[in-house]
Specification:
The chain is 58% helix and 5% strand. The strands form two sheets. It has a two-stranded antiparallel sheet. Strands 3-4 form a two-stranded antiparallel sheet. It is built from ten helices and four strands, in the order ββαααααααββααα. The longest helix is centred in the first third of the chain and has 27 residues. It has one domain. A hairpin with an 8-residue loop joins β3 and β4. The model has no long low-confidence stretch (mean pLDDT 90). Belongs to the Lgt family. It holds the Pfam family LGT. One of its GO terms (cellular component) is plasma membrane. It is a multi-pass membrane protein.
């Protein structure tokens, strides 16, 4: 068993002002994605300015934050937030939904694309390889918060999390998700998008592999207490939300390579 590193969730406290690691992880994810996007901007559209890119990153970040929070409220704990709506604003305590953030990003891409002469999938193909940076950073934030831990286990790398009332040795599922959704997904999308691909192919690869990776980790991750298992004592809300991503990803990849012949999209 490995000892859990005792990390204060508050990175910096200045009087009553507290800066949490969880919030900093979002800044790292957004900043890393912006930096990488700026490096690849000329291959995407040489006519775009850095200011336009910054606008896109801003609106998509709003999609992540607003969509992620509202997604958690709607998908995971609606009754609690209806009983006390002010809890919605306490984002430093965690409670963000990837699937809600994903919907928020899609809506932002649809709106921003229309304003700037880009199709929805042109923007999504460009953005997809950068998303794992934020996903990986977010999982590190979950680990520091000692939340979203896994099931009890006797594997040598199990940890006892301070937030676990039972104090059992558990899978560090946050680190599994960091490795898969952050590192592995980034590598897959980065390598795949280095060559020109037909429109929708990169978006399809993102949806497919994120869905697969998240579906797998959910088998060893403890479901949210207020929901538990939805069916068969193993199906979680996370897995339910990943099924359409896997199916949609496969469909997008098939459509990308089986539509009427067209010039391939530039590498993004």
């Amino acid at each position: 068993m490995l000892p859990y590193p005792q990390i204060d969730p508050v990175a910096l406290a200045i009087g009553p002002l507290k800066i949490h690691w969880y919030g900093l992880m979002y800044l790292i994810g957004i900043g890393g994605a912006w930096w990488l996007a700026s490096r690849r901007l000329n291959r995407f559209d040489p006519t775009w300015s850095k200011e336009k890119l910054s606008d896109m990153v801003f609106w998509m970040s709003m999609g992540v934050i607003v969509g992620g929070r509202l997604g958690y409220v709607l998908f995971y704990d609606l009754n609690a937030y209806l009983a006390n709506p002010t809890l919605i604003f306490e984002v430093w305590k965690g409670g963000m939904s990837f699937h809600g953030g994903f919907i928020g990003v899609m809506l932002a891409a649809l709106w921003f694309g229309k304003k700037n002469g880009k199709s929805f999938f042109q923007l999504m193909d460009f953005v997809a390889p950068m998303v794992p940076i934020g996903l990986g950073a977010g999982r590190i934030g979950n680990f520091i918060n000692a939340e979203l831990w896994g099931k009890a286990t006797d594997v040598p790398w199990a940890m006892v999390f301070p937030t676990d009332p039972a104090q059992l040795a558990r899978h560090p599922s946050q680190l599994y998700q960091f490795a898969l959704e952050g590192v592995a997904l980034f590598a897959i999308l980065w390598l795949f998008s280095r060559k020109p691909r037909p429109t929708m192919a990169v978006s399809g690869m993102f949806a497919l592999f994120y869905g697969i990776f998240r579906f797998i980790v959910e088998f060893v991750r403890v479901p949210d207490a207020q929901l538990g298992y939805l069916a068969w004592n193993w199906l979680t809300m996370g897995q339910v939300l990943c099924i359409p991503m896997i199916v949609g990803g496969l469909l997008l990849i098939w459509l990308a390579y089986h539509r009427a012949p067209a010039a391939p999209a530039a590498a993004v």
